């Protein structure tokens, strides 16, 4: 039986590139810490592991890889951190995470490779820990691109980002929070903070863990 003990909350930020995930996740961790919540910022891909270094090299176009293989590597990069993530949460640490399985599915499926559809892309993610809250920073790709344009990495093009956004729309579930990311940094932060406080309170009260895609 899942134990109903106090634990940290798993709070996930998702959205297209340049929607503000990094700014908002950093700000949320600072705010949580300053109100006494033990919180850490995690991000995927985790480029520090050996699998993460292979992903990093692929994203920087230094190496080529089959689209199915890189998809599985992104998923494996979450599986290799799964036990550490669960241990942190069990210790009472709240994890604010910048991208996770939803990005994994949305990006690979956006490539339009025959066979690599949403269902195929989801399957290696099934069974990973499900976030307690998803903060989806909603922003049209044109508005994201207007923030100084996309960077140099693979996937940072308007066409791909539009397909990614359409996939996020298909992946959205009714328990996600859709945040209007076109507001000011402080407005977006206030909306995220309210959801995070609620998630932390529920986990302290003993919310059970859930798995993707149950
Ligand atoms: N990305 C990220 C994927 O394609 N699959 C994944 O599972 C994850 C977590 O990698 F283009 C893509 C999304 C983005 C890139 O970018 C990583 P950032 O800037 O480090 O978030």
Total number of beta strands: 5
Would you give the CATH topology? Rossmann fold
Percent range of helical residues: 40-55%
**Rounded Rg:** 17 Å
Q: Averaging pLDDT over every residue, what do you get?
A: 96
Structural domain count: 1
User: Gap between N and C termini, in Å?
Assistant: 16 Å
Bound ligands, named by name, code or SMILES:
3'-fluoro-3'-deoxythymidine monophosphate
Number of helices: 8
- CATH superfamily, called what? P-loop containing nucleotide triphosphate hydrolases
User: Could you state the order of secondary-structure elements as H and E?
Assistant: EHEHHEHHEHHEH
* CATH architectural name: 3-Layer(aba) Sandwich
- Unreliable spans are none
Task: Report strand order across the widest sheet.
Answer: 2-3-1-4-5
**The first-level CATH class name:** Alpha Beta
Largest sheet: 5 strands, parallel
Strand content: 5-15%
Look at the helices and sheets and give the structural class: alpha/beta
InterPro entries: P-loop_NTPase, Thymidylate_kin-like_dom, Thymidylate_kin_CS, Thymidylate_kinase
GO molecular function: ATP binding; dTMP kinase activity; nucleoside diphosphate kinase activity
Organism: Micromonas pusilla (strain CCMP1545)
GO cellular component, one term: nucleus
């Amino acid at each position: 039986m899942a134990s109903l003990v106090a634990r940290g909350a798993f709070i996930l930020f998702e959205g297209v590139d340049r929607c503000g995930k990094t700014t908002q996740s950093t700000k949320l961790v600072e705010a949580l810490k300053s109100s006494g919540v033990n919180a850490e910022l995690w991000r995927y891909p985790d480029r520090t592991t050996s699998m993460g270094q292979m992903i990093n090299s692929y994203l920087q176009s230094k190496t080529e890889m089959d689209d199915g293989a890189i998809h599985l590597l992104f998923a494996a990069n979450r599986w290799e951190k799964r036990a550490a993530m669960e241990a942190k949460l069990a210790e009472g640490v709240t994890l604010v995470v910048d991208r996770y399985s939803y990005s994994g599915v949305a990006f690979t499926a956006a490539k339009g490779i025959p066979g690599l559809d949403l269902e195929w892309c989801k399957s290696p993610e099934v069974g990973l820990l499900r976030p307690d809250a998803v903060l989806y920073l909603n922003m049209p790709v044109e508005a994201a691109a207007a923030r100084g344009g996309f960077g140099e990495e693979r996937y940072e093009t308007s066409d791909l980002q539009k397909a990614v956004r359409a996939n996020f729309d298909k992946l959205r579930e009714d328990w996600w929070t859709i945040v209007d990311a076109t507001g000011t940094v402080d407005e977006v932060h206030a909306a995220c903070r309210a959801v995070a406080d609620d998630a932390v309170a529920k986990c302290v009260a003993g919310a059970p863990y859930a798995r993707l895609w149950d």
